[in-house]
């Protein structure tokens, strides 16, 4: 495990319009081309649902989220837990029609233990076809 001070030095912020291009670059470094979102898709997400687009930032750099140098240090799990916490908090401040009930996602087989560690429940193999690998459905009830 990496020294706690590294994780403590991170801040989690919603990705703003200025950072969308860099987030897209980091996405393309971390995913196969057939799975990576385009800049247009990232821009749409940032405009349509800015509170669902979270990034991890170091205090001295605003371009480290998912950067290869920062992988396998616990950043993704910390960011996912922060994302869950923010959705729960935001949901508490909404009326019944606007509350988030659950988080649903798909992942590849090698990431199953990661999402289980974060509290997600594996529902089984997904029917979604995206890229070349199988996907698995997960749900976390809020």
UniProtKB/TrEMBL annotation:
It comes from Gigaspora rosea. GO terms for cellular component: cytoplasm. The lineage of its organism: Eukaryota, Fungi, Fungi incertae sedis, Mucoromycota, Glomeromycotina. This is N-acetyltransferase domain-containing protein. Residues 10-142 form the N-acetyltransferase domain. Keywords: Acyltransferase, Transferase. InterPro entries: Acyl_CoA_acyltransferase (IPR016181), GNAT_dom (IPR000182), SNAT-like (IPR051635). The keyword Nucleotidyltransferase does not apply. SUPFAM superfamilies: Acyl-CoA N-acyltransferases (Nat). One of its GO terms (molecular function) is aralkylamine N-acetyltransferase activity. PANTHER family: SEROTONIN N-ACETYLTRANSFERASE (PTHR10908:SF0).
């Amino acid at each position: 495990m990496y020294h706690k001070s590294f994780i403590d030095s991170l801040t989690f912020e919603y990705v703003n319009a200025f950072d969308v291009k860099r987030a897209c670059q980091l996405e393309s470094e971390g995913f196969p081309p057939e799975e990576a979102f385009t800049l247009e898709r990232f821009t749409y997400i940032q405009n349509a649902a800015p509170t669902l687009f979270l990034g991890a930032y170091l205090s001295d750099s605003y371009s480290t989220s998912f950067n290869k140098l920062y992988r396998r240090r616990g950043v993704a799990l910390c960011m996912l837990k922060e994302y869950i916490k923010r959705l729960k908090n935001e949901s508490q401040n909404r009326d019944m029609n606007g509350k988030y009930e659950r988080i649903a996602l798909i992942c590849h087989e090698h990431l199953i233990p990661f999402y289980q560690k974060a509290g997600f429940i594996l529902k089984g193999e997904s029917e979604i076809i995206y890229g070349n690998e199988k996907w698995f459905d997960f749900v976390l009830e809020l």
